[in-house]
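During the reporting period the student researcher (J.K.) took over the structure-prediction task from the postdoctoral fellow and processed the backlog of single-chain submissions. One of the processed entries is reproduced below for the supervisory committee.
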Amino acid sequence: MSDVVDSDELLRRIQRARACAQQEEETWRERGEGLRATDPEAAREAGVRTLAYEAVLRVLDEILRPGEHVARG
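J.K. obtained the following structure tokens:
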């Protein structure tokens, strides 16, 4: 990757990445809920993917809005 981008373009790319991660998180969450009764192994896999996208969202949220994320747990 040798493109030089300005800060506005970088922000747009991060926002697009966040929107994509949000959609994937929702998709995997719904898939996992739908599989829970019929295929527990696939539901667990979907749960792992959901957690992974949640982590990506937390990181991107911290980049876009520093300090607004409240730690869970």
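The committee noted the following: Residues 19-64 form one domain.
J.K. will present the remaining backlog at the next meeting.
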